[in-house]
Amino acid sequence: MVVLKGIPSVLSPDLLYVLAKMGHGDELVFADANFPASSVCACGPKEIRADGLKIPQLLEAILKLLPLDTYVPCPAAVMDLVDTDKQKGLSVPVWEIYSNLLNQAGCKSPLEKVERFAFYERAKKSYAVVATGYVFIPPFLFFLFKMSGLFVNKS
């Protein structure tokens, strides 16, 4: 096995291949363990397994390699809470972690919040879904967009 310099060890060869193949406007979904990744990927996106890894560690690693899209208002999106969770006042601390990682990568835009079923439909059109071992109650997925000149599932 060849070790590449500067490539974070959490990035598998399959994930690196997907990142290399993505083009302008392609979307990558980071999914928690409960996301229906195999069902969504039956509609076309490539499924990348990252069992045992958490979305923040993958996001941090990928942001070192993949520039964000500067031509869209919000280059990163999460699945929004459902109304009943909003009514309960549920907070999602991991969103702050995502925002901080994006900030460190130079993205000052807020996270776009996408309604649950709209998120599933959007995921079906993504380039790939990275199915992680991250478990959330409720589930939180994250999108990452690739660079156009620059470019996640709820979590």
From TrEMBL:
Any one biological process term the GO annotation gives: monosaccharide metabolic process
Catalytic activity: alpha-L-fucose = beta-L-fucose
InterPro entries (UniProt xref): RbsD-like_sf (IPR023750), RbsD/FucU_mutarotase (IPR050443), RbsD_FucU (IPR007721)
The entry's keywords: Isomerase, Membrane, Transmembrane, Transmembrane helix
Keyword Lyase assigned: no
Residue ranges crossing the lipid bilayer per the database entry: 126-145
E.C. no: 5.1.3.29
Family: Belongs to the RbsD / FucU family.
PANTHER family the record matches: FUCOSE MUTAROTASE
Name of the protein: Fucose mutarotase
Source organism (scientific name): Oryzias latipes
